Amino acid sequence: MGIPHLAGYLQPYAIHTTLAHKNSNSITDIDKAPNYTLNLIIDGPALAYHIYYRLAHRSSNALSPFDAIPSYKEIGYAVLAFLSELEAHHIKITHIYFDGHLPHHKRPTRLSRLETSLKDLTKLRKKYPKGFPISLPPSPVSSLPSSHLFNSFHSIPHALRGLPAPPFLVPAVLDVLHGNKYAGITAIVPGEADGFCAKAARDEGGVILTGDSDLLVYDLGDKGAVVFFAGLEMQENEGGGGTVLRGMVYKTAEIANRFELPNLQRLAYEIKIDPNVGFMEAKRRTRQSAAEEEDGVLWQIFREEYHYYSIPASPSLQEQQQQQQQQQQTHRLDPRLSELILQLSSSPSHEQADATIYLPFLIDDPSRSSAWDVSAEIRHALYDFLATHLTPLSSPSGSVKEVGQRWEEGVGWGDVHLRAQVEGWVYAVRMVGQGVGWVGLGLDLGVEGLGGLEGLWEEVEVEWEEVVEYIVGNDVCG
Questions:
Q1: Of the candidates 369, 375, 364, which has an alpha carbon nearest to the alpha carbon of residue 471?
Q2: Alpha-carbon span 155 to 161, nearest angstrom
Q3: 334 three-class SS
Q4: b/e per residue 53-87 (b: at least 16 CB within 10 A)
Q5: What is the pLDDT of residues 99-141, one digit of tens each?
Q6: Sequence-ordered list of residues with C-beta below 8 angstroms from that of 406, at least 6 positions apart, any chain
Q7: What's the rounded Cα separation, in Å, for the pair 206 and 186?
């Protein structure tokens, strides 16, 4: 999401430096310590999209957007390769955070993105009314040099323009991380990942790896810094052999001190409310407002968006055990299901718990009814179940509103649409398994109990043609 122009305005004050090295005798510039291990906190959704676009750049000669899309299996392989490469450069990955609940003020942005995706897919449907040409498959992920996963291109590949990202990109990456050694440091948090990344950087020290300029707004303290995926590069180490990772390091506390400000929040606010203000004028307004101690309502709302998430102090042993068990379950939930559960279970007493779930944007045929319609009954049964069991006892049962794409009836890309229907249907089954497991009815219907759905997206990618054949043969889609 981020604040337009903020990172660009602050870039001259960032430090382009060596972050880490592999198989070399060089030292890191960031703190001049030869045995230094860099602590890294990763913005999970940003990691998923970074890998997706890096793999898409393999397909510069793709004849259609669908040829350029990497499979979920390829994305998972590349994520693990990327993290392993970080560790090989003596970087310690301390946290990988994923959004578990986005605040209400993000609603306009989410709706705007859905609308943009709809318009882009509709344009694509008109551009390719009879389907897509087939080009040669791209290079296997395993054959790509490690540097390809780091050295980013700022532009989106031409073949991918107008096509939304795979609908289950983030869940696929989460499943891969939960099935590997990174499970212990991977968490779906009860809020935005940004605040948890910022708190970890401030409390523990470390660099946040992200694609979101919002992280520059938080007060990261003297021990925290930000590096963007787009600026992370792997280079040959000319001095001592091996390779080094270099990037632009934004030490926000030092930058704020240079501007004689306590932090960068007010500066970011001035840029956000007037994107055309210019950097020098934004700094002038920031100093003026600080001198006048201006505390307007909009400014207060902005500040509240960049708060840290606190942990209740000194719970009882029983409460600790319950919190630990619930936290372990939360960390493995699908992000959208996590958001739904948090909405339903946190409503005030005596009030109806109304919740909204934003369905992933399926890449289907925009001339037909939504591919989500096939699995509607499964999802709505889950919503009723959760609303009944998660709302406080003194509250009436809640209701759940879905937000997703809707199309007019018609005819269209059969293969594309059927694939989207299959993915939506399997996703709904996955939600049921996790949702029932969360409520804890002892029915053994958690992720493992539904046939090993941790590798769900890889299975859909590898064997989806067999699934499609079964569904068509049994008239499941109607």
A1: 375
A2: 10
A3: coil
A4: bbbbbbbeebebbbbbbbbbbbbbbbbbbbbebbb
A5: 988 877 788 888 888 888 888 888 888 887 877 766 666 777 8
A6: 369, 370
A7: 16
* 19, two tokens: 């972050």
* CA separation, residue 45 to residues 2, 52, 171, 352, 467 (Å): 13, 11, 9, 31, 28
- pLDDT tens for each residue of 414-432: 667 777 777 787 778 777 7
Token pair recorded at residue 442: 């002892």
How many CA atoms lie within 13 Å of 168's alpha carbon, on the beta-carbon side?
29
Q: How far apart are the first and last CA of the chain?
A: 39
User: Is this model's pTM higher than 0.85 or not?
Assistant: no
Two tokens, residue 459 = 């299975």
| Structural contact between residues 363 and 423, judged by C-beta atoms closer than 8 angstroms | no
DSSP result, 393-409: TTS---EEEEE-----S
Distances in Å between the Cα of 198 and the Cα atoms of 185, 202, 312, 327, 366 are 16, 6, 18, 20, 39
Taking the C-alpha atoms of residue 16 and residue 405, their distance in angstroms, rounded to an integer, is: 42
Signed CA dihedral, 425, 417, 178, 309: sign only: negative
